[in-house]
Amino acid sequence: MVDVLYSLVDANERFNHLIRDSLYIHNLNMVNMTIKSYYDRIFSIDKHVLDRICKKILPRMYHQVNELIVEQYSMKRILHTVNYPQLYSLSLINFQAKRLLKYLTDDSILREVLTEQITNLKIDIQDAQSTKGRIIGSDIFVLILSLCKRLTNLNFCHMYHYRRLPFCIFNYVRSTHCMSSTLTNLKICVINFGDCLYLLDGRLDCLSTLIIHVNRIYCPSSIIQKTEKLPKLKCFSLSSVEYTRRYDDEIIPLLRRMINLEELTLLLPVLRFDSTYIDGIHLHDQILIYMPQLNKFTFSINTLVVNMNAKIDLPSHEDIQRSFIEKKYGQVGSYVDNVSTKIEVDVLYSLVDVNQRFDRLVLDPLTIRNLSMTIRTFESLYDQTFSIDDKILSRICDKILCRIYDQTNTLTVEQYSVKRILHAANYPQLYSLSFINFEEEILNQYLTDDSILRDLLSKQITHLNIDIKNAHREWFKITSKIFVLILSLCKKLIDLNLCDLFFEQKHWNRISRLTETSLTSSTLTKLKINLRTFTECLFLLNGNFECLTTLILHVEMIYHPIRHIDNAVCIRFRSSFL
Asked: What CATH number does the domain containing 481 carry?
C-alpha cells in the first residue's frame, strides 16, 4: 500500500483514478512488513517515502480514510499531518509498550481521535514478554477502555499467531478502572483463567463476543464473581496450550453461565485423573444442554487420562464416534491411544465437512504453518514414545503435504518418518526444524548422508531443536560430533536447542575435548544445551560464538576448569555470577 501511494506522487491522472477506488482510499495501510524469519519481522516505512506521502498524498485523500494502520515511528507524523474526519478503525502495530503508553498519555491528537472517533482498535505490542512489559501492557489496556468512549471492537495483542502476548489483568488492575459500556467484541491473550473470569464479571456489560487465549488454566482467586449468568454473550472462544486440571471445576461452570451462546470454540488440552475421556455424551450433558441457542460448536480437545487409583474401562474410538451419533450431532474426528493401563490419550475434534474444512485449513496459513508429525505417548513421566502410525503417515504424505508444503514454517519429526516426510515435498518457507527422540547414530547418519536434509539445513533452517533418546555409555562422543556437524552445516542458524527439550530427559554433552576450530559459528545468537561439566560452559564462551547473546545451560557438575581455557574468560564469566 505504501509503495502504491508513493508511486502516485506527482502523477495526477493516476491519483485521480485511485482516489475513486474505495478499497485503497478507505483502508490505508502505512506499514511495510519485512520477514527476516518467522519470529523476526520488521515493521517500518522509509522516511523519505513517508515524507513525500504526508506532503503530497494525505492532504488530498484524508477525508475518505476510514481505516488506518501505523507503526510506532511514523504514527505521530501521520496523525498530525491532517485530520481524518471519517476515521473509525485504527491499528497500532509493533509498538514498544513504554512508547505506546507515553503516546496514549501525552499525545493530544491521538487521545482525541480515540475518544471521539475510534470504534475498532487493534493493538500489537512487541516487548510484552518481560514482567515490566506485561505490567505496562495492563496499564495500556485499562487506559484504552477509559479513553475510547465509542469503542466496540478491540483486538489487544492477539493479531499475530507467532507472538500472542499474554497479560495479567486481574492482579495489576483495580476493578473500578477496567470498565466499558460500549465494547461488544474483544480478542485478547491473558496469563491465567482468573483474567478470563475477571473480564466476564459484568464490567464489560455490552460484551457479546470474547475470543481469548489463556496461557495457563488453573484455579483463580476466590474473590472473582463467577456465578451470575451471561445472557448477552453470543460468541465465545477459549484456547490454551498447556494441559489443565481445571476443566471440570472451572471451565464447565463458566460455560453453563452462557445461556444465550450461539457460537462456541474450545481448543483445549485437558488432564483428568481417575476419570474417562471427554466424548459426545459428556459434551451434551455437561455443556450443550445449557445452551439452547447454540448453532455452531468448534472444538479440539486433547484429553490425557491418568487413572492411578481407579480401574476404569475407557471408551474406544468407535465408542466415542457412537456417543456423538446417539446424540444426533454431526461427524467428528477422534483418535484414541491406550498406551498403558494407567495413562491414556484421546484427541477429539469437530469435523462438520471434511473437504470444506480442509480447504479452509489450506487457505489459512496460521493453522498449518506449524506442522508436528509425531504423537507423544506416555507409559510414565520418564518412559515416553514418539511415533506416527504408518497408515496415517502415508495418507498425510500422499494427500496432505502436497497441498500445504509451501506454507509450512516449522516442522517436528521423529526418526522413523523423517526421510519420508522430507522427501515427500519441498518446504520453501520452512525455517524451524525439530528432531524428536532420535538415536544419535541414526541422526548422525542422516546429517552425513541425506542430501535433502543437508541442503535444507544449509540454506533455510534458522531454528533447530534436537532431542536424543536414551543413549549408550559413549553416546556423548557421537552427540558432540553432531553438534560440530550442525554448526558447520547450518549457515543461517541463529537458535539451537541441543538435548534440552524435555525436563524429564537430560543428556549431558562433552565438548571440551573438541578442537576450538571445529566449534564455531558466526550466526548463532541463542543456545540451549545440557553440559557434563562447568568446563564445557567456559569452553563455549571462548569467543568462537561471536554473535551469541543468549546462553541457557544445565550443568551436571561444577568444578575447577581445565587449564587450557583462557583465564581471562574464566574471570569475566565468574564475575557475572557474583
From this structure: 3.80.10
Element (H, E) at 104: helix 97-106
Question: Residue 464: which domain range?
Answer: 431-575
Quote the CA–CA distance of 339 and 211 in Å, as a whole number: 34
Is the residue at 514 inside a domain? yes
pTM, to two decimals: 0.61
* Residues in a beta bridge with 265: 237, 298
Query: Which helix H or strand E contains 136, and what residues bound it?
Result: helix 131-147
Please report which confidence band the pLDDT of residue 56 belongs to, taking 50, 70 and 90 as the band edges.
confident
Encoded amino acid at 568, one letter: A
Sequence-ordered list of residues with C-beta below 8 angstroms from that of 576, at least 6 positions apart, any chain: none
The CA distance from 510 to 218, in Å, is: 40
Q: How many domains does the chain have?
A: 1
pLDDT at 378 over 60: no
Q: What is the DSSP letter of 560?
A: P
Residue 477's contacts (CB-CB under 8 Å, 6 or more residues apart) are 510
Q: How far is CA 86 from CA 15, 43, 62, 242, 538, in A?
A: 20, 25, 8, 43, 61
Instruction: Give residue for cell 514498544.
Output: 96
The C-alpha atoms of residue 46 and residue 23 are separated, in whole angstroms, by 23
Cell numbers that stand for 232 in this block: 448477552
Cα distance between residue 450 and residue 460, in whole Å = 15
Q: What is the pLDDT of residues 416-430, one digit of tens each?
A: 888 888 988 888 989
* CB within 8 Å of 395: residues ≥ 6 apart: none
